[in-house]
Structures are given as C-alpha cells and as structure tokens.
Amino acid sequence: MSRNRRSLLRRLALLALPAIVVSSVLAASGPASGSGASSDVTNRPSDRPSFVVIMTDDQRMETLSKMPQTQKLLADKGTTFTNSFVVNPECCPSRAATLTGNYSHNTGVYRDQPPHGGVKSFVQHHDERSTIATWLNGAGYTTALMGKYLNGYKGTRIPQGWDSWTAFNVPHSGTGHYFNYDLNINGHLKHFGGAKDDYSTDVLAQKASTFINNTNGPFFLYWAPSAPHKPAVPAPKYEHALAHLPKWRPASFNEKGIKDKPKWARVPRLTKTEIHRDVDQTRLDQYRTLLSVDDAVGHIVAALRNAGRLDNTMIIFTSDNGFLWGEHRATGKQTPWEESIRVPFIFRYDPVTGNTGTTNDNLIANIDIAPTIAAAAGVNTPHVDGSNILDLLNGSNWRTQFLIEHMEGRYSPAPTYCAMRTQTEMYAVYKTGDRELYDLTSDPLELHNLANDPNYDQEINGSGGLNDQLRQMCSPPPPNWKGP
C-alpha cells in the first residue's frame, strides 16, 4: 500500500471517530503551518493533499469528446461520473452551492440577480464567511480563485478566505470575458484588451501554473474560465477549428408535440434563423472555446507534475450547469430538464482512483464538492447538504435522489419551481401549478410528460409519493411561493 493511500485511509478513519477523539489525535500531531492554522487539520503539511477545481461555464457533458487532453490526463486517470448534476441550473446559484455544499434554500441564492440572487444575496446571507475557501484557509491551506466568482461581482473587494484573488469584474460589453475584460488581481484592477495574448482562458492558465509553482505547502485552486458561456468567442488559433462538427438533432430537437409540456414551455418552434444562430453556431463556438480549456488542463496538470504534486492533488473537472441546444424548442438553461442540470464531472485523485480510468453511474451533485474536499483535507465543516464522494468510492451507501430548485428571473424561461431527480425519474412542480414527470428509463429525452396520466396518480399523490417527498425536500420553498 502506498504512503499516500495509507494517509488517505488514516484521514477517513479519523473522520469516522467522535469529534473529541479526533481532536485528541490531531493535537498530538501538532498544528499546521501557515496563517489561521487550527487543530482541525489531520495531517502534517507535507502529507495533506492539494485541490484543484476546474469549473467551466455552461458546459454539456457531450463536449468532453472533443477535449483530448482532459480525457487523457483526467478521465483516463480517474473516475468519470456519468450521472452528475447541479442542484440549480444557473450560474450564480450553482456556484454558491459548489462553494458551500448547500442547496439554494440554505445559501439564499436562487438566481443570478437580486433579490434572492447574485453575489449581493450571497453576501447578505453571510455565506462568504463559510465556504470551502474559509474552511481550508483557516486550516493552513493557501487558497486561490481564478476566473469567475459570482454574478454581479465587481470592484476590488476580496471575499474572506482567499489568499490569491484573480477574478473577472463585470464585463464592459457583449464580448463577455474572453477579450476586453477587467481582472481584480489581489485588489488591483487590470484591463486586458483584444490582443491575442489577452485571451482570458490562456491568461488564467498561465496564472494557475505560476500559482502552483510558487506555492509552498498544501493549496486549494478554484479555476473558473468563462468558456463556453455565450457569446462564446474562440481563441484566434481555434476560430476555424471543428469545421465539420456534425449538427445536433436528437429526437427532442425543436420538439413537434408539446401539448403535454407546461404552458410556459409551449412556445413556437425555432425558426431556421434561430437554429443557425442560437443552436448550430453557438454550439460550434462553445466547442471551440473549450479547446483552450483543454489546453489549460494540460498546463495545470504539467505544473502539478513538475512541482511533484500530481500524485497528491485531487482534481475535479465540472461545470456550473448544462445548456439546451434546441431540445424542447429551447436554448439556454435554468430548466429542470436533463440538458440543463446534467454536467461533466471527472474526479482524479491518484491515491484513490489510481491510474486507470473508470466510470461511475451514481447520482453526483455539485453540492458534494465542498464536503469531499474538506473530508480529504481532514477539516471540520458546518452542516452541509452535500455528501463526501470518498465515502461513495469507499463502498458506502449513497443517495438515490436530490433536489433541484430555481426562482424565476429576468432571463429565466421557467417559472419558479422545485424538482427532484431520482435514478429513474424527474418530477417538477412549478409555481403556476404545472407539473412534469418523466420516466427516464423508457424516455431519457423527456418527450412524454406523465404528470397528468391517471396511471401515475398514486405514485404522485399517494401517501409518501412524489408530492410528499418533494414537499419535504423543498423546505423552505423558494421565496413568494408556498411550495409543492
């Protein structure tokens, strides 16, 4: 058994002990180095793992097929979770859930803009004081955020818990954060223009490599590029790549029969112009922007290897939500449909995953990231809604369902809703009273809404049925709604 694997098993064993026993063992081990060190640390600094979370923006799982370095360096060396999801399919609430391990009803962030959304709501709800960054930083970890923080963030303020801060400011124009953007670099704003070397994904990749090479002791790096968020602007070297990418036309594309869908979804079919502009061209440009992310993965892994850290660094690659490419006559996100909530999730941690690529079909959610990292670091956390993925990989029982919640906003196609995703079904209840139920085993594309089928009445409305389960999970419900 390797030294790293023994160290991991020791951490897991400690976490299973009563807190008073753990504290006694830790006190005997001595405190960690660095500012804010606490007795919650279970390992000497040289033993503790480092962490890299790569969080893309609006990426679908299918796009991984065109990211060869991500496949070779992460998927082929780790575990790809094939049923991985977010608990609120919009940027800001999803990232708040990732950083805290909590559902929207515990972060206070239901959408991208206030009230009840955006960075302002996150600050007002005091969750900046308790995130994976503050937990680790208080235990002697060096922490860094690079790229996107939360929607609406601007200025030179640095949230609590972060030692190194390189965050996008609110963009100037419709070019997003690819060219012509500002970065808050440790409290000082710096503008990047339209030159080739200003392409943001490449800039952030270089800064990530520098951080890894220059940091002593264990660290946590949250690396969050703009890609492939629209308007997706590829790097000049990739602006003509993938010219022969096949069009995306599943059976759910521009769906013909939608009378069984909720009223809000019964919109006109996409026109040829909309299909070309909002589906085909957007999708192609998203793939092209991800080629630079793929390059960045190569740079980050190379930096970890050169620094002698790769064999003791947990790397998680995921996204803040999916994206609709014309399914059900829709584009964008924010719905409880599979295309919005399903995201890529690759987990490489050599002491656990070894060097052989595997897949796992258990239900993983973004709320699991923070508690997993905390557990591997041996850091105590407050109560969180997520679970430790290391427990799953160690053979423990795992969830069979999770909650999805979202509040309607300025750009949201769907009314406020609560939904639940099980291993075989998706059930949603909207503020309007509309409901959706899909059997994902026989209908993975969600073409046939069963919510009004009398054959499913008992399953939905019976004692302990889907309604009762969803009501219990969605508590409290989103603001201004009594809930399902």
Q: Could you explain how this protein is built, in words?
A:
Residues 1-45 have low confidence and may be disordered. Helix 8 (200-214) runs parallel beside helix 9 (272-306). The chain has a ten-stranded mixed sheet with strand order 6-5-4-3-7-1-8-11-2-12, sandwiched between helices. With 484 residues, the chain is of the alpha/beta class. The protein has helices at residues 3-15, 19-29, 68-73, 91-100, 104-107, 118-124, 132-137, 200-214, 272-306, 338-341, 350-353, 369-377, 389-393, 457-461, 466-473; strands at 50-56, 79-85, 142-147, 164-168, 181-185, 188-192, 219-224, 313-319, 324-325, 331-332, 345-348, 358-365, 401-406, 417-422, 425-430, 435-439. The longest helix is centred in the middle third of the chain and has 35 residues, at 272-306. The protein is globular. Strand 9 (324-325) and strand 10 form a beta hairpin.
Topology record:
Blueprint: H1 3-15, H2 19-29, E1 50-56, H3 68-73, E2 79-85, H4 91-100, H5 104-107, H6 118-124, H7 132-137, E3 142-147, E4 164-168, E5 181-185, E6 188-192, H8 200-214, E7 219-224, H9 272-306, E8 313-319, E9 324-325, E10 331-332, H10 338-341, E11 345-348, H11 350-353, E12 358-365, H12 369-377, H13 389-393, E13 401-406, E14 417-422, E15 425-430, E16 435-439, H14 457-461, H15 466-473
Parallel strand pairs: 1-7, 1-8, 2-12, 3-4, 3-7
Antiparallel strand pairs: 2-11, 4-5, 5-6, 8-11, 9-10, 13-14, 14-15, 15-16
Helix pairs in contact: 8-9
